[in-house]
Fold each of these.
Amino acid sequence: MEYLPVEVIGNILSHLAAARDVVTASATCRKWREACRKHLQSLSFNSDDWPIYRDLTTSRLEILITQTIFQITGLQGLSILMDDVDEFSASTVIAWLMYTRETLRWLFYNVRTTPNVNILDLCGRQKLEMLVLAHNSITGVEPNYQRFSCLKSLSLSYVSISALDLNLLLTACPRIEIFSLVNPEIVMSDAQVMIELNSPTLKSIYVEAISLDKFILEADSLENLHLKDCALELFELTGKGALKQFKIDDVSVLHLDIGETVDELEIVDVSSFTIIWSKFYQMISKSSKLRKLRFWDVVFDDEDEIVDLETVALCFPKLSHLALNYDLRDDLRDGVLHYGVHGSSPLQNVITLELGWTVVNDLFADWVAGLLKRCPNLKKLVIHGVVSDAKTHEECQMLANFTSAIVKLMRKYMHVDVQFDYI
């Protein structure tokens, strides 16, 4: 180790990242201390990494962080995540950012201060490429002054911001490609809660825990759209049809529109969602490049609706991964099998099949058998199931019958890798 160049040692310390580990390692010898001072690239202060952070007084913690940061030159990555820690002095935090901002490429910032520190003022017009903000307040965005010309990734969690400032912030990031918005407090000036975002460079957006009347997104280059745990009356995406991945998880939305041009769509993942199949199918029916289709815990708005695998096979010829899960109790009561296996067209390219139940019964094994017949080139089968802790004799017998039926069935498909995932 004594023959390693200081630059290499600095790279090793940068992979440690956690300030406690970096300081401990750099105490090895003078050469390692020099590597820490001049060649350390990233540094992290995280209250979850070291419980002692929470035991220190705020003033003592401020001194500790200040002493560590001010010994290092040329820092490119700084992470300060202080959950469950009392408020810091704004002047101290400003000093940390002023000292490092000219060389920083990424900043993770979750620090409560009095008063609030304006990160945009401090880090705008610098070289930041990634910015992650949490528990912060953003007001009065000025795109011309608070400009992030190098920023490609922006994440906002539990921030307070107006709908106007949110759009202006994206405007201030002319090269942004990745945007994450989690549980924001949207400050509105009128009764209707609405967000309109516009970004020609955005490629991926993740939105979680947001409640709005309208969410309108204009993004010509968007490839990845993920909505989770949201309540929306209207969600509308307009663009030039670059979308490749669409994922929606536990979302309530009355009107959903992802645009007419979905020719590039490759992945559709829908879970915990009430679906009107005819409208949803119409939205994705032209996606001839679709490779993965996942419907998990989906509730059908019309009890008589059927997702016909014949239609799926004909419209999505490149489909290689199919995942279906539903509650068979509704099927038994109404006599409707929501995922029908009628027809003769094979799912020729499906090599991975995931199937699941909420309550197992005799019908499930027959359904699995029908699906296997439709997948001549299948290589992997994953069966997910829910098995209750308190089982009646009838439930135990049903599970035993199902297991026997599946074992017998899979003897016909020895080339298929079978996995069971029970909870």
Amino acid sequence: MSQPSKPVSSEDIIGQKYDRCLADFLVKAGVGFSAGVVASVILFKRRTWPIALSTGFGAGAAYADCDRTFNPARVPGVRILPAASEAQPSK
């Protein structure tokens, strides 16, 4: 027999979303930083602006993904439907 599952609290759901957003931010900003360092060393004579620019691009992409996580109505093509009421009998 399967165990009855406990309902997940809203605080846990929001906490999981924040954790995912933070991890996504660290990964994307880190990849942007790394790409900026490589571009700076190879292409731009060790200037610092490619590092700042690519880190900002990574952070901006992470911010946009996090915004879509917390507000799904901002995803293009997504329509939010109201929940069906269980009190209404089906015909």
